Structure formats: C-alpha cells, structure tokens
C-alpha cells in the first residue's frame, strides 16, 4: 500500500455527503499545509482526513516580502498546499509560489497545489485580438516552473484553462454540495435558472440532478447606448427560482436577474454559487436587491460585512475537497466521485 497504511485493507465508506470514514488508522506519506488565504478551510479538510495540519510559518518581512519557513520534515512526503488565490490575489498567489519552492527545496516527493478558487481565471483569452494579457496562462506557467507537480481546483471558470498547464489538473465540481442543500430546503414548485447563456450547461446539470425544469435569462442590448433587456426563456410565474452560477463577484448579474424573474411573476428567487468573490459594492447590491437569499461555499472566506449580511449563507465544501485529496494521494479515480 503506497500512501496509506492500516491494520486492515485501506478503504473508505463513502456517502453521498462526502463524509470520510475513520477506517484509515494512519497516514504515512500525506501532509497538508496552508497559507494565509483560507486557513479555516484547510483545518476543515484535515479534520475530515483525520491528520494534523502541517506546521509552517507564513508571513511577511518588514518590507512586505513573503516569508516562508517549513517547521517540520517533509522529505519524501506527498505534500498538499491549500491556498485559494482570492483577494488579496497577488499576495496569496505569491505565498503559494514561494511555499511551493520551499517544499521543493526541502525534498518533498510530490507537491499538489489545492487551489479551491483559481484567481485570474476570467483572463483566459484575447477578445477580438485586444492588446491584453492572458493572465490565466501566466499563472499556470508560474505554478509549473516553481515545481508544483499537480493542481486540484474547484469549478474553474473555464474548463479550457486546464490546457494552460503542462502538469495534471483536477477540476472538481461544487455542485453536489449545492444540490444537497437545495434538496434539504425542500423548495416547492422549484425551477433552476441560468443567469446567462454561458451558464446553461452548469444550470442544466443541476436541474437534471434535481429533476426539475430549467429557465434561461437572455441578456440583449437592443440598440447601441441602450440598457440591456432581459428576456426570460421559460415560464417562471409562481415558481421558486434558483439562479445557479460558478461565482458571484459584484452580484450585479444575479441581482438584475432576480429583479427580472420577480417582474415575470416568480414567487421566490434564490441564488447558489460556488465562489463568493463579493468585490466592490456586492454586499450593498445584495442588500438592496429583491434576491431572497444567496448561498455560497467556503472556497473563499467571507468578509466581516458578508458574514453579517442576513441574506448570505455559506456551505462547507471541505468534505468533497478532502475526499479528492485522499483519492489523489492514494492514486484513486477523481472522476468516479461524480458518476
């Protein structure tokens, strides 16, 4: 048995809620570390894996440079570094890069970057040959050059970003966590809604899992210098509508979508998203909207204002990430988690 040792054959009892069994008695090779981006999620992950969080000092020197020191032996270990590259994006990205270098120089056998939220993912192309950077590719090159062997991420904004890497990338889905919560709420007369044409595939998958109808919001600008008009494809009158997206940034799209749905007769409008970026005036937009509730996961930690907002509720994605980490370390299939 390569990565896990036990007094019995190594296997987990695996439920639909991604709860890990305690049948693994000792982990021999795997070690999990975290930067400063989301230590709470890292603690939840190691709690599911029944191992301690690795000891590392991650801070800054007086001039603002990143300071990293690994405080325990990682020679020959299978290291997992948990660090979403959320705001402050550049600081968190630099922490990830410098920590990876420290592990490589400390003779770790394999380094897997667990990036629950992959920053710069929306900068993945040059629209109309504009003179802009493809920053997602730049970040992929940085992570590869510094010595990271594998990347594990959640709900990449664009699946093709995996092709920017010359190392394996596992993109797992947050939808099982969202679907489980939707089922627990026991909504009546439910309908899933895609907030735009680009999110139809994601919303359709959720609707299929729940066995409910799908509606689509089609945003169009009828004339130049005129505001966008939202057309609703599907009958939402009297329905409980759930907008499904991969992330919520300024919340403008979701709030405008909620308004359009209510104007077309929707009884209730909720929004479910994996990544709570919540930048700019997002909290103000949500509080002033007709949106009944926004449900997000903890791939990104909530700010104090977001935590105090009664319309925002957070779900724990730790168990599903922990299961993916276990499977990678144990050389098991990731795709089997979602069949």
From TrEMBL:
Cofactors, names only: Mg(2+)
Cofactor binding mode and count: Binds 2 Mg(2+) ions per subunit.
Annotated residues for binding of Mg(2+): 157, 196
GO biological process: 5-phosphoribose 1-diphosphate biosynthetic process; purine nucleotide biosynthetic process; ribonucleoside monophosphate biosynthetic process
InterPro entries reported in the protein's UniProt record: PRib_PP_synth_CS, Pribosyltran_N, PRTase-like, PRTase_dom, Rib-P_diPkinase, Rib-P_diPkinase_bac
Entries under NCBIfam families matching the protein: PRK01259.1, ribP_PPkin
Name of the protein in its database record: Ribose-phosphate pyrophosphokinase
Organism expressing this protein natively: Pseudomonas marincola
Primary gene name: prs
């Amino acid at each position: 048995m390569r990565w896990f040792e036990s007094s019995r054959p190594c296997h987990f009892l695996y439920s639909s809620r991604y709860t890990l069994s305690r049948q693994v008695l000792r982990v021999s090779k795997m070690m999990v570390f975290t930067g400063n981006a989301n230590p709470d999620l890292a603690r939840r992950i190691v709690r599911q894996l029944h191992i301690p969080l690795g000891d590392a000092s991650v801070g800054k020197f007086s001039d603002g440079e990143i300071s990293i020191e690994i405080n325990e032996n990682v020679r020959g270990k299978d290291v997992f570094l948990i660090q979403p590259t959320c705001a402050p994006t550049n600081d968190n990205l630099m922490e990830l890069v410098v920590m990876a270098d420290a592990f490589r120089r400390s003779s770790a056998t394999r380094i897997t970057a667990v990036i629950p939220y992959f920053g710069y993912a929306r900068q993945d192309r040059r629209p109309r040959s504009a003179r802009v950077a493809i920053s997602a590719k730049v970040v992929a090159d940085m992570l590869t050059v510094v010595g990271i062997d594998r990347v594990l991420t959640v709900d990449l904004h664009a699946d093709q970003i995996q092709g920017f890497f010359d190392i394996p990338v596992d993109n797992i889905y947050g939808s099982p966590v969202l679907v489980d919560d939707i089922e627990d709420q026991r909504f009546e007369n439910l309908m899933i809604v895609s907030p735009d044409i680009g999110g139809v595939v994601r919303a359709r998958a959720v609707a299929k899992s729940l066995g409910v109808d799908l509606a689509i919001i089609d945003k169009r600008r009828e004339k130049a210098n005129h505001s966008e008009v939202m057309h609703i494809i599907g009958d939402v009158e009297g329905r409980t509508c759930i907008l499904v997206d991969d992330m919520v940034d300024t919340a403008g799209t979701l709030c405008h979508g909620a308004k359009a749905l209510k104007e077309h007769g929707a009884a209730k409008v909720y929004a479910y998203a994996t990544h709570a970026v919540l930048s700019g005036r997002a909290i103000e937009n949500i509080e002033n909207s007709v949106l009944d509730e926004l449900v997000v996961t903890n791939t990104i930690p909530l700010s104090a204002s977001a935590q105090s907002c009664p319309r925002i509720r957070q779900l724990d994605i730790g168990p599903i990430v922990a299961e993916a980490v276990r499977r990678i370390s144990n050389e098991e299939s990731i795709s089997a988690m979602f069949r």
